[in-house]
Amino acid sequence: MATTETRAAFARRHSVNRSTVGRWEAKGSIVLTVDGLVNVEASEQLLGGRAETYRGGKAKGPSAKTDRKKAAPDLVSPDLGTPPDPLALAHAGLAEVIRAIGPYAARMAVEFGAPLQVAYGLDQAVAVEADGIAARFLAQHGHPDTANGYGTLEALGLDYADPDWAALAKAADVPLDLEALDTWFTATDYWRAPPEVSA
């Protein structure tokens, strides 16, 4: 019998956040049961066929800053007179925006009085959509790391940033239940049939 667990538990297993597991799901890289749980063995087998640098989880949150020089060496020039590669600079800049935009959207939703569910959904969807837009843009301009269909963050070995959900729940004056938020979001029409975003 297969081992099953929630998407959140599978994210913890791989030291990534739920957005990364969501991207794996959208790309068909994980196997779900009919009740929405992750089939661990089947999913591990699918993920095992992907290059390690494209699995996500290499760096997350503040620690990602320490890996950026390794992920984008073209941006680090020993000679200050040598400009960085423009495409690598665009790639790194887009990655910074993508990492920040989900948590920013979540914080703005709470500040504008939206329910925590809306904040959670915006964090997930805005970051995923922004990553897709950036990956398509970079692929159209010949960036080899995104031409294969992996996202901008994955190509750099970075993970999405997580909002401070405890602080946002406190600001919204509601109890925090990330499992319930994840269950709600993955049942939305958005996640069941992600819309195509025009470039």
How is this structure best described in words?
- The protein is globular, with a radius of gyration of 17 Å.
- Helices cover 57% and strands 2% of the residues.
- It starts with a strand and ends in a 7-residue tail after the last helix.
- The protein is mostly helical.
- Strands 1-2 form a two-stranded antiparallel ribbon.
What's the layout of helices and strands?
Layout lengths: L3 E2 L1 H7 L4 H9 L11 E2 H9 L15 H8 L14 H26 L4 H25 L3 H4 L4 H4 L9 H8 L5 H9 L2 H4 L7
Antiparallel strand pairs: 1-2
Helix pairs in contact: 1-2, 2-6, 5-6, 6-10
User: Over the alpha carbons, how many angstroms does the gyration radius reach?
Assistant: 17 Å
Assembly type: single chain
Strand order of the largest sheet: 1-2
SS content category = mainly alpha
Strand content: under 5%
> How do the helices and strands follow one another from N- to C-terminus?
EHHEHHHHHHHHH
Number of strands: 2
Please report the number of helical segments: 11
How far apart are the termini?
43 Å
What's the overall average pLDDT, rounded? Answer: 74
The percent of residues in helical segments reads: 55-70%
The largest pleated sheet is described as: 2 strands, antiparallel
Overall geometry comes to globular
Low-confidence stretches: 50-71
Short structural description:
By secondary structure, the protein is an all-alpha fold. The chain has eleven helices and two strands.
Main traits of this protein?
about 200 residues; mainly alpha; two-stranded antiparallel sheet; 11 helices; 2 strands; globular
